[in-house]
Amino acid sequence: MKFTTFVTLLIVGSANSFAPGAKSNLNTALKAESIKGVTTRIEFLHQSVAAVAASLTLLPGQANAAKYGGFGAGSPEVIDPKDAIIDEEILKSSSVQKGIAAVRGYKQSVADMKATLSADTQADIGPKI
Asked: CB-based burial of residue 5 (10 Å sphere; 0-12 exposed, 13-18 middle, 19+ buried)?
């Protein structure tokens, strides 16, 4: 949304640069004042509207990156383990079996730490790590 607004403002701004300028009916004294840095009310209003539009467009807003109820987006990388396809040949390889054994060892270590901490909340679990 913000990107679309920003691109629209860029297109409108670039289109204005190619549009013919409005003829000014100011006399030379008023032109001299405008050259000195005095702005008219309409120029001030244009600048104010542009500043407000830029601040609303470029300031960060709320990001809905996760799926919470009816808004946000779910992760495309999350799959249901029941739908997984298991390659039996790769599963039987020694490197995969070593990895599975390591994960089971980590799981057992965590279970031991939980059991130790449930028995004594101030227990030293450093040696188990």
From this structure: middle
**According to the model, what pLDDT value does residue 53 have?**
84
Closest CA to 54 of 46, 44, 66, 62: 46
> What is the pTM for the complete model shown?
0.37
Spatial contact of 129 and 114, defined as CB atoms under 8 Å apart = no
74: pLDDT strictly greater than 80: no
What is the rounded distance in angstroms from the CA atom of residue 55 to the CA atom of residue 5? 12
Torsion of the alpha carbons at 95, 99, 100 and 102, rounded to the nearest 10: 140
CB 62 within 8 A of CB 2: no
pLDDT of residue 40: 82
Among 104, 102, 128, 107, residue whose Cα is nearest residue 116: 128
